[in-house]
Amino acid sequence: MSFASPYPGKIIPLDLMNYNGKIVCQKDAFLCAAKGVSIGIEFQRKLGTGLFGGEGFIMQKLEGDGMAFVHAGGHVFERDLQPGEFLRIDTGCLVAYTQTVDYDIQFVGGIKNTLFGGEGLFFATLRGPGKVWIQTLPISRLASRIISYGGFRRKEEGSILGGLGNMIDGDGWR
Amino acid sequence: MRTNHEIDYRIIGEEMQYVEVELDPQETAIAESGAFMMMDDGIQMETVFGDGSKQQSGGLLGKLMSAGKRVLTGESLFMTAFTNIGQGKRK
After folding, report:
1. Full domain range(s) for residue B30
2. What CATH number is given to the structural domain containing A96?
3. Alpha helices (H) in chain B, listed in sequence order
4. A3/B35 touch (CB, cutoff 8 Å), yes or no
């Protein structure tokens, strides 16, 4: 049978046997798996990571030795981190990591970055060894962009008729 | 040696993908509820409480615990299990 992903993105096949039986992934990423794979929760023990890591205190863990499929937005790529290799990523872009990776957060620093950077106040930091999966388009980012086009504010079409024009197009009365 | 079921799969599509899972007889795949798209004749769909993994057979309380945890991650209480009850491989 077939399972479809709920929004534009990639499906990542994960053979848990290759990752010592465990992968931690973002909430809601799970799509399907072979029977026997257990889907549980992973608590972030670090207070800062839980509060500011973008994924909250609770992530999903997949345990077992079968195939599991997770889904994430946009393009998804994997990156192998060497022991001690350090990567800073946007907190929303983290999809999954193997259990050997150390996941933490880091304050962006600098007054201009903090006030005007628009990138949030924290980076997620990942330290190797291990493998991480990164998405280019977190669904929340896509959703907020779509919402900005919805409702009254029509940016790309519409005429001077305004609300009356919307009514004529059948795009809603209000 | 694997203890979990061994499933074959194919990922189809570019930006809007789906995964096609092929099951041998008596094999089962589990999925997030709502992800289902299509299945062959001979595959039985069953809604299960929790994820149906063997570690959870520890009585009702154990099942409730693990399902309750799943609610915290934003997944639903129930999952769907698809089992090939026919002869030969089915998709």
Report:
1. 8-84
2. 3.60.160.10
3. 59-72
4. yes
Per residue in A21-39, pLDDT tens?
999 998 888 999 999 998 8
- pLDDT, tens digit only, all 91 positions of chain B: 788 888 899 999 988 999 999 999 999 999 988 889 999 899 999 988 877 776 545 677 777 776 676 666 666 678 889 999 988 898 8
Distance CA A123, CA A128 (A): 16
Q: Does the interface predicted TM-score (ipTM) exceed 0.85?
A: no
Minimum distance, in Å, between the CA of residue B1 and any CA atom of chain A: 9
Average pLDDT estimate for A130-153: 84
Distance from CA of A6 to the nearest CA of B (A): 7
In this structure, is residue A145 part of a structural domain? no
As to burial, measured by CB atoms within 10 angstroms (0-12 exposed, 13-18 middle, 19+ buried), residue B52 is buried
Q: Rounded to whole angstroms, what are the CA distances from B62 to A22, B10, B30, B59, B68?
A: 21, 34, 19, 5, 10
Q: Is B8 helix (H, G, I), strand (E, B) or coil?
A: strand
Q: Provide the number of CB pairs (under 8 Å) joining chain A to chain B.
A: 144
Q: Do B31 and A2 touch (CB under 8 A)?
A: no
Residue B54, in any domain of the structure:
yes
Residue B1 included in any domain: no
Specify the length of chain B in residues.
91
**Mean pLDDT score of chain A:** 83
Integer Cα distance of A91 and A50 in angstroms:
11
Question: What is the structure's pLDDT at B52?
Answer: 73
